[in-house]
Structure to design on (129 residues):
């Protein structure tokens, strides 16, 4: 990972800033929503959230995400294990967003007037021939 001239890691600095925006109880919600049921390769809710954000933000494959997790020391897991973690995370991510909206004073308004939908905007190129 790149280091700045002061020796700090910009990705770690950004993660520290992002954590300040997360609502209280977000780590406990990982357990109550079933995103985490036991600690194995992923050692904490923070690690799981980092894995999810890296996967989504970078638009990486599951295999690349698993390789990143191993390279950074976050977790040693297969691409299938990454997929399983992602499959169990939607309710947890929804609870984080709902708590954040409530903290901003827009929780009930958003719930009654809008529906948040996350979509995959990837495309699959077709071979012409």
């Amino acid at each position: 990972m790149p280091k700045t001239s002061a020796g700090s890691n910009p990705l770690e600095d950004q993660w520290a800033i992002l954590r300040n925006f997360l609502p209280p109880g977000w780590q406990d919600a990982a357990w109550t929503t079933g995103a985490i049921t036991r600690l194995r390769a992923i050692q904490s809710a923070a690690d799981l959230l980092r894995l999810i954000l890296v996967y989504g933000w970078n638009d990486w494959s599951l295999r690349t995400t698993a390789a990143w997790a191993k390279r950074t020391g976050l977790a040693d897991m297969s691409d299938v294990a990454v997929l399983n973690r992602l499959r169990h995370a939607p309710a947890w991510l929804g609870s984080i967003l709902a708590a954040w909206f409530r903290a901003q004073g827009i929780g009930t308004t958003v719930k009654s007037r809008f529906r948040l939908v996350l979509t995959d905007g990837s495309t699959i190129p077709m071979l012409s021939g």
